[in-house]
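Before the break, one more example. Copy the sequence into your notebook; we will annotate it together after we see the structure.
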Amino acid sequence: MSLAMKLGTGFGIVVIIAIVLGLLAVVNMKGVEQTTDILVQEKVPEVSVANNIERWALKSMIEMRSYWFTEDETYWQSAFQDLQKMKDYIKAAKAQAASSPRLSALKEDVEITEIAASEFEVLANKGLELTHAQQKSRHRRHPGPKRDVPENIKMRRIKKIL
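Here is what the structure looks like once it is written out:
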């Protein structure tokens, strides 16, 4: 075999190897494209909706805690609005879970979250009722500003001194 034939055969083998590697890369990239599509269309929105549910649940809890500490109704109204936003995101998560069979874990978690949110709302309303009952009880015991609570006693002593 002559040198030209050996060089031609070697170069031909290198070209065939390059073509095979190129085809292999294209096939692998198609697989990556499918995985990327799943991530973009299903997994990223799944994480986003889960984060929004958590965000509004925590915000609602903080607002409720603020209401129970201060008894300022604006905190309760804000907590109730946050709770409604959380419910909206739970509905969105249910719709998203129904859209794909690969989101079965989301479907199960949304059901659990929906039950927990309902229980949370019941307990929050019960807490609101108890707070209102406590306010009424406090008002019955001390109906007016002339009650002898430590603040009023201090004010009377200060007025005597002045």
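The helical segments are 3-70, 73-99, 104-141, 150-161. The chain has a mean pLDDT of 86. Try to locate both features in your own notes.
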